[in-house]
Amino acid sequence: MKPTTLYIIRHGKTMFNTIGRTQGWSDTPLTKEGEEIIRYLGLGLKDTVFQEAYSSDSGRAMQTARIILQEHENGAAIPYGTDSRIREWCFGSLDGGYDGELWGVVPRILAFKDYEDMMTNRISYKDLADAIIAADTANWAEPYDKIRERVWSGFEDIAHHREKNGGGNVMIVSHGLTISFLLSLIDNRLPMQIGLENGSVTKLTYENGSFTIDTVNDTHFIDNGRGIASAH
Predict the structure, then answer these.
(1) 86 to 112, 159, 228: CA distances (angstroms)
(2) What confidence category does residue 194 fall into, taking pLDDT thresholds of 50, 70 and 90?
């Protein structure tokens, strides 16, 4: 049996990413630059054999997955599906607002001076989820336990299904905070990976119910794809 490896990709850069708006369950399409970077990523991954592919059900993740599969040598033959469990956190009434609103109010709720002070003191994801709920005037934000259950079961079910069916590589397009949170569930010593690049690849190996982190925020596939594109 082959090892089971997840290639977890942060979606391409979107309109909201570009203008600094909070994008949880709200959604905007990739920009032209975002599409171009993901095409490079697709070229960089075109020779990687994927048994199957998934994305969250958010438009930006589905758009990213489609571009990668279009560039792949065997993209049309790779089974692809969506899973709502691996979508981004919901920021409630702060969703769609400027990043400064979210990262302005959350530190104050947690009794920190500002965002930098909060990150220096290394808050937990539960602290963050609780603060988002406190700031959310619409009562849409998810409690920590619900986020934990859906994110873990989403990725674990995908990995377990692949392992059960002979192993191999799975391409998964998800979201920055969701990927960062998953990493913390695997290894709680890791700092928050808030700065994951759009189009970066985080690679995990799965065996007998356990994940191992291989690489985080890897952008070399994009660089390789850019080289391939410029050679033609």
Answers:
(1) 30, 13, 31
(2) low
Name the residues annotated as catalytic.
Answer: 11, 88
141: helix, strand or coil: coil
Which residues carry a binding-site annotation?
10-17, 60
Helix (H) or strand (E) holding 79: none
Q: How confident is the model at residue 192 (pLDDT cuts 50, 70, 90)?
A: confident
Return the CATH superfamily for domain 4-90+143-231. Phosphoglycerate mutase-like (3.40.50.1240)
Chain centroid to Cα 154, Å, comes to 12
Q: Which residues contact 143 (CB under 8 A, 6 or more apart)?
A: 129, 133
- Using DSSP, state whether 5 is helix, strand or coil: strand
Q: How far apart are CA 172 and CA 128, in angstroms?
A: 25
Q: Start-end ranges of CATH 3.40.50.1240 in the chain?
A: 4-90+143-231
DSSP code, position 85: G
Is the pLDDT score of 95 beyond 90?
yes
Feature table: binding site for substrate: 10-17, 60
CB atoms closer than 10 angstroms to residue 2 = 12
Residues 58 and 25 sit within 8 Å (Cβ to Cβ): yes
Cα–Cα distance, 107 to 109 (Å, whole number): 5
